[in-house]
Design brief:
The protein is of the alpha/beta class and about 400 residues long. The chain has twelve helices and 14 strands. Strands 7, 8, 9, 10, 11, 12, 13 and 14 form an eight-stranded mixed beta sheet that branches. Strands 2-3-1-4-5-6 form a six-stranded mixed beta sheet, with helices on both faces. Bound molecules: P-hydroxybenzoic acid.
């Protein structure tokens, strides 16, 4: 009985192949590629994101939907000119199933383009570039963080409500800084204020002195700045050292004081910012998260850790919907789109463009904490201007 009809033999071989592929898809590890800044001004942000992501996986017993997780890493150096090559190391060389990254908007824009072209799942655990969940929106690209517009617009509203009329903005001249300033102006001017000047310096420069002198001579009612990481530490200290914090309040999206208070110390005390996270939200979900994070890493969690943690939660939602088979992209995407993420920041769902719809909090720096003051805007959705999925 060795002479089977050739078509039967072919069918049997095909079945064996399918079985092999299937069993591999179900049992091999899920390859997660971190593309994050591990050097430069945003290095601490990259580490917090990775730690947050891994903490969630560890809490699930090291597996997501029954699948082991294998990690790959690329340091993107917050360098847009290297971004396409870097992301292709993960997509083409390492053949990862999902890319998680990054912090810098300019780098993330290139990553989103590559993810779209290669039909690769991308979860952005920070970078707020508005276009990614706007005109560039894509089925396989998700964000666990915010759009640059969200916290900035809220800060504009809050500053206007405080009665400030004339503001100067100061930021790094790249997508995140420029979009943040634009979002602030929108909220501020709707509330009756006016942005009278936009000052910038190149990313990631920290020579603020000449710009601070300009602000001192123009005496606006308020200053709005987007800086983060190492640059934010230096900026807030320089602002205080110039004596400006005594006369002209400094506002910003919460990145200005998140994960930075250790370094900013006295200079940051009393500062008010807006963000989708605060240090003492006082809900059981957040308390448990912060406790486990502190135990595991001997450090306090910050907004970046939360965004990394939630990126892993979003991946799990997708995997569950596809019974652990990440190759079933349509099911993974549908699962992520439908998910309600039980985040330490508060539960959130995604907009049609795959960006969190979330409360933006007003916070004030007290000691080493960004203390919750109230909700600036409830359930704020990025307008997703120009997104056609
Ligand atoms: C960004 O480039 O989008 C960015 C970087 C750092 C932050 C927030 C946004 O803290």
């Amino acid at each position: 009985m060795q002479l089977r009809h050739p078509s039967i033999r072919l069918a049997m071989a095909a079945a064996a192949l399918t079985l092999c592929g299937y069993s591999h898809a179900q049992t091999g590890p899920i390859k997660v590629g971190f593309m994050l800044p591990y050097t430069g001004t945003y290095a601490s942000l990259g580490n917090m994101i990775e730690n947050g992501f891994k903490l969630y996986v560890q809490e699930q017993g090291g597996k997501l939907a029954g699948r082991e997780i294998q990690y790959f890493k690329v340091d993107d150096e917050s360098e847009p000119s290297k971004a396409t090559d870097n992301v292709n190391k993960l997509i083409k060389r390492d053949q990862v199933d999902v890319v998680v990254g990054t912090v810098h908007s300019g780098v993330a824009l290139a990553m989103a383009r590559a993810a779209k072209e290669n039909n690769t799942l991308l979860i952005i655990p920070n970078a707020g570039a508005d276009a990614i969940t706007g005109p560039m929106c894509s089925k396989t690209v998700f964000r666990s963080s915010f759009s640059n517009w969200q916290p900035a617009y809220a800060m504009g509203e809050v500053a206007a409500k405080k009665g400030h009329k004339k503001a100067i903005t100061l930021t790094w001249n790249y997508a995140a800084g420029n979009e943040s300033v634009k979002g602030f102006a929108e909220g501020f001017e709707k509330g009756g204020g006016k942005v009278v000047q936009n000052l910038t310096l190149p990313f990631p420069n920290v020579e603020f002195q000449a710009l601070l002198t300009q602000i001192a001579s123009q005496k606006p009612d308020a200053v709005y700045s987007f800086f983060a990481g190492g640059g934010a530490v230096k900026f807030v200290k320089d602002y205080a050292a110039a004596g400006l914090n005594k006369t002209i309040p400094l506002y910003g999206p919460g990145f200005l004081t998140d994960g930075t208070l250790e370094g900013q110390g006295e200079a940051a005390q009393g500062m008010i910012t807006t963000l989708h996270y605060a240090d003492n939200l006082n809900n059981p979900r957040d308390k448990a998260f912060r406790l486990n994070f502190a135990k595991t890493y001997k450090a306090n969690a910050d907004v970046y850790a939360v965004q990394g943690y939630d990126a892993a939660q979003m991946l799990l939602a997708g995997l569950k919907a596809a019974n652990g088979d990440i190759k079933k992209m349509n099911q993974v995407v549908a699962g992520m789109e439908k998910a309600e993420i039980d985040s330490p920041r508060g539960k959130f769902k995604l907009s049609a463009a795959h960006n969190p719809i979330q409360d933006i909090y007003t916070r004030q720096v007290k000691g080493k904490l960004n203390e919750y003051q109230g909700v600036a805007i409830k359930q704020l959705a990025d307008p997703g201007r120009g997104c056609k999925m």
